[in-house]
Amino acid sequence: MSVFRTCAALTTAAALAGCAALEPARAPVAPAFDLVGRVAASHDGRAFSSGIRWAHTAQHDEIWLLTPTGQALAHIAGGDGGATLTGADGSEYRAGDIESLTRKALGWELPVTRLAWWVRAGIVPAGVIGEVLRDEQGRLVRLQQDGWHITLTHRPGNEGGGLPQRLELTRDAHRIRLVIDTWR
Prior knowledge:
Number of strands: 11
Strand content: over 45%
Structural class: alpha+beta
Mean pLDDT: 86
CATH architecture: Clam
């Protein structure tokens, strides 16, 4: 009986040690990019438009909402530790993620986690996918994912390497238009 207990204890210890070495699976992250463009949003009868600069990495997003002359209206920074929006007047808002933050501070949600995929004409790997439509060159032109309807417009031909120039996002009464002027 003691040999059985010893084997059982060793097997249990080995199994627990193996479990301790495993890291929890992380959701896939969109490739890094830096873009400059314009954004317009409407929700609940309100409208907003500005210039935008968005720098995205696997760990962090930084978004500047800009006036037509390039001055910052707001700076949004977000990562694993939460998100912060700092206004031009020094006001500051905090939330657990950029989506919650923009809902709270701006009155409309900017779906940054998903948009980081869509802006590069990709599909969020872990999302719920509805319609997927591609053009004759194989570029994504329409997508339904996670309740959002996304329409992508590409530059003529293969100019821009398959990256979209314009995205239209709608969900219920929420509408966002993103025009990308340059990729950095």
